[in-house]
Amino acid sequence: MIATSRRNLILSAALAGAGTALGLDKSLAIVAPAAPVRRQQTPDPKPGYLRYKIGDAECTAIYDGIWEKAHDPKYFGNATVAEIKQALADAGLTTAFVPIPITVFVIKLNGKLILCDSGGGDQVQAFNPESIFVSGKMMANMKAAGIDPKKIETVLVSHFHPDHIFGLLEKKTNAPVFPNAEIIVPAAEYKWWTDPSLTARLPEWRRPLARRIQTVIPNWKNVLQVEGEDEVVPGIRFVSAPGHTPGHTAFHVSSGNAQLMISNDAAYLPALSFGHPGWHGAFDQNAELAEASRRTLLDRVIADQMMICGSHFPWPGLAKIARDGAGYALTTVHTT
Ligand SMILES: [Zn+2]
Predict the structure, then answer these.
(1) Model pLDDT, residue 33
(2) Cα(152)–Cα(21) distance, rounded to whole angstroms?
(3) Which label site among 114, 122, 127, 150 has the fewest CB atoms less than 10 Å from its CB?
(4) Could you tell me if 194 and 217 are in contact, meaning their C-beta atoms sit under 8 angstroms apart?
(5) How far apart, in Å, are the Cα atoms of 118 and each of 64, 139, 256, 320?
């Protein structure tokens, strides 16, 4: 359990249809230039959940959506678009775009029901008209899996990026989606995003995120900051993995001899970050620190023979990993 002294309770604590049918009378002879219609290419998994056991822990992977990201030469500082396409092809994935699925996890363990991250809540922009960002399927898929969202007692947050926390906020009102759950966040992440001086230091495109976090989260009374690597609920421990963001955290689940590392964004897309752990992505705030955290985490998973899953692993995301030359190889584990 968390040592009380280390817990710090926070007291204050579309894509629009691009191809709009104009319905014009042809006699008007007005032809609007056809905007390219960009629609989701990747079929949703059916069902959008998968349940498996890690010891006595009942884990349910829940599909939230997918970011089909247009290729961008700035995506990695030290890998070309051609190299990225090759890595995707090697993993058997499309090379038309970078497929970035979003999965959240519900764990039932020791009598508690815990949600690990909350997806994008249908509130994440793709930033680029050639990309598409679909999210917010978590709730429907959770219900399809027989899980009542009102029964979630604890929400663990890995970091404050939109695809991990916007599912905690109602779309138009910012009202809490899980008002009765305890929301446990890494203290380093909370402190960084709620620093009043942060907004001015961020690039323009990141400022709305910081403003939203600062306007909403500190007013919630059910947010608990945890320092370091405490056991945050019985059987689940925070594992510090900074770099992607300053307080980015993985979740370690253990039950009996079975262990699962929920790596969140420490290993990002296995197709890119496992075979090439030294590639430095624009999505990592401190790419060198992120690489060190990635290697430390993956080496530990191998040494301790854990299972691993991540927020953006290929659905359903449960895997084993091994060393493979200078990198790592992933084997997806299929359960029934
Ligand atoms: Zn993410």
Answers:
(1) 55
(2) 42
(3) 150
(4) yes
(5) 8, 9, 27, 24
Contacts of 297 by beta carbon, 8 Å cutoff, 6+ apart: 239, 241, 250, 261, 263, 266, 267
Count of Cβ atoms closer than 10 Å to residue 70 Cβ: 16
Q: How far is the CA of 115 from the centre of ligand 1 (A)?
A: 16
Q: Ligand 1 center to residue 162 CA distance, Å?
A: 8
Burial (Cβ within 10 Å: 0-12, 13-18, ≥19) of residue 46:
exposed
Dump pLDDT digits (tens) for 248-285: 999 999 999 999 999 999 999 999 999 999 999 999 99
Amino acid at 154: T
The per-type count for the chain, helices as H runs and strands as E runs, is 8, 16
The Å distance, Cα 33 to ligand 1 centre, comes to: 35
Measured in angstroms, how far is the CA atom of residue 31 from the centroid of ligand 1? 41
What is the model's pTM? 0.88
CA of 311 to the centre of ligand 1 (A): 6
* Cβ pair 293, 264 in contact under 8 A: no
Residues 180 and 148: beta-carbon distance below 8 Å: no
Instruction: Report the DSSP pairing between strands 236-240 and 231-233.
Output: antiparallel
The alpha carbon of 163 and the centre of ligand 1 are apart by a number of angstroms equal to: 6
